[in-house]
TrEMBL record:
Record keyword Transmembrane helix present: yes
Species name: Halolactibacillus miurensis
Keywords (A to Z) from UniProt: Membrane, Transmembrane, Transmembrane helix
Domain of life, per lineage: Bacteria
Protein name: Extracellular solute-binding protein
Annotated transmembrane regions: 22-41
């Protein structure tokens, strides 16, 4: 039966009741679909920027890390400081979970700057975890003295942590270096941090 024939002789209220009775599934489904599309578009349009993640593997105290967080808080973008505490190469309490989290974060590109010592960096270079700095960013925009650059296998891989004002509160910052993981995502922001 055609809708036009069914409506003959009905009042407006009867027509509305008829449409609701036979087509409410289609009406509700269409409204839900439109709401879903609107939420998806709104979600993509209002997505917040991801922060630049600086991961530090050191024996710096919590107070020192808080100073670093404060120093980075003056940037025009968010910087998240992640710290894994270790004492002479030993990671206390939940060490395995920390290493697993670190490995996963490096693999998926959640770490943009990595602060570690030279020995650890050389091990990570063998696994191609770290990238030469000049392969990742425009090094003409940053000025680092030759003695503060860590050159490994004829490539510039690291910057002495003590040369960056934000990292001077690190314990033994003159023995730590800043590296860029090969999976880093925020290359332009890294460049701004290193200027």
């Amino acid at each position: 039966m055609k809708l036009k024939e069914a409506f003959q002789g009905m009042t407006t209220k009867e027509k509305v009741d008829y449409v609701w009775e036979y087509y409410k599934g289609i009406i509700i489904g269409s409204l839900c679909f439109l709401l879903f599309i609107w939420l998806m578009v709104d979600g993509f349009m209002s997505k917040d920027e991801e922060p630049v993640v600086v991961t530090i593997l050191s024996r710096t105290s919590l107070a020192g890390i808080e100073e670093i967080e404060e120093a980075f808080s003056h940037e025009t973008f968010d910087v998240y400081v992640d710290h894994i505490y270790h004492e002479n190469g030993k990671i206390p309490e939940n060490g395995m979970q920390s290493i697993e989290r670190l490995s996963t974060s490096l693999a998926v590109g959640q770490i943009d700057l990595f602060v570690i010592d030279q020995t650890m960096a050389e091990l990570m270079m063998l696994e191609e975890v770290l990238a030469p700095i000049d392969d990742m960013i425009d090094t003409t925009t940053i000025q680092i003295d030759q003695q503060d650059q860590l050159i490994l296998e004829n490539d510039w891989y690291g910057i002495r942590a003590s040369t960056l004002s934000e990292l001077q509160s690190l314990e033994k910052s003159d023995q730590l270096y800043v590296f860029i993981p090969a999976t880093a995502r925020h290359v332009k922001k890294i460049e701004q941090l290193l200027k």
